[in-house]
Amino acid sequence: MAATFKELIGVPEIGARWDKVRRYFFLRESTYDMTRRCNLRCDGCYYYEGAKQHAKDESDPAKWRTLFEAEKERGITFVVLAGAEPSLVPELCRVCYDVIPLGCIASNGLKPFPKEIGYRIHVSVWGDDEESKRFRGRACLDQQLANVAGDDRIVFVYTFTKRNVDQADGVVARIAEAGGRITFNMFSPPVGYEGELALDAGAFAAVRAKMESLLVRHPKTVLFSRYNAEAHTDPERSLHARYHCPYPRCNPDTRLGLGRSFRQYRSDLTWDRSVSCCVPDTDCADCRHYAAGSAIVTARMAQHVGSEESFRKWLDYVDTYLAVWVRGYEKGENLYK
Length: 337
What we know:
Oligomer: single chain
Low-confidence stretches: none
Largest sheet: 7 strands, parallel
Number of helices: 13
Mean pLDDT: 96
C-alpha cells in the first residue's frame, strides 16, 4: 500500500526538507531577453533561431521599468534575464533588480556584472578551452574565472554535448579549486539543428555516469542530485514526454500555473504565447535543458508522491533547483542515495 502524504512528511528528514522547500512556493517566474546582441556566436544557440532574434532592442530604461512594475503587479516574483547577452546592458538589468529583487541572469561570464545587481548569475561553460574555441569562437574559462572568482552570485553551468563528456572532469576540478560551484545542463538542439553537438543514446548513458561520478567526487562544488541526472538523461523521453511541459508553448491551459502566468518577453518588450517557454525555438521533442526542467519537474509533485523513494527524488530535485536559481539558498544533503 502506498504511503499517504501525511506519512511521507512524517519521516523526520523528509518533513524537514518539505518545510524547507515549500517556503519558496510563492515564486512565479517569467523570462526577458534583455538584448539581441552577444559577444559570442555559439553553435546551436537557441537565441539565434526563430523570430525573437529579429526584435528591435528597446534601450530606454524607463520603458523597461514600466514593464517590470507591470510584471510585479501581475504577480511575477522571480525574473530570468537572458538574451543574447545581458552583461552588455547592465543598466537595464539594474532597473529590473530595483523593481523585482529575486531572479537570475543567464550569461557567458565574459563581462562581470555590477555588484549592486544581486541576482544569481549562471555562467555557461561548454567544455575545455579548445572545445570552446571551436564551438563558441573563443576560449572562455580563464576569463570567466578571472571575472567571477569569489563572487557568491555565480553558479557555473556545464552544458554536456556529445563531444565534451570527459572534459567535464578538468573543468569541474578547476572550478572546485577556485572555490566556485557548478551545475549541469544538457545540450538541447534548436528546431532543425544538424550539427555535431546533439546527444544520442550512448552519449546519454555516458553523461549520466559522468554526472554521478562528479557528484560523488565534488560534493561541495556540484549542485546536482542523482534524480536530476536520471530526469535529464533519459534516452527515450524528453522532459515534455516524461513530465508534460507546463510552459505555454506546450500547454494550452491558461487557467493554472505557468500556463496562466508565464511570459517570455523579447528585447522589444513584446511576447507571444504560442512560442513562450524558457528556451524558445528548442526542439520540444528533444528538450532536456536544465532551465526547462527546473520548472517542469518541480511542477509535478503529484507525480512523485506514490512512494517514499519517489518523493525523496522530487525533494532532491526541488532542493537543487532552489540552490541553483535563488541566491542565498543552500542545498542540503541529497535524500535519495
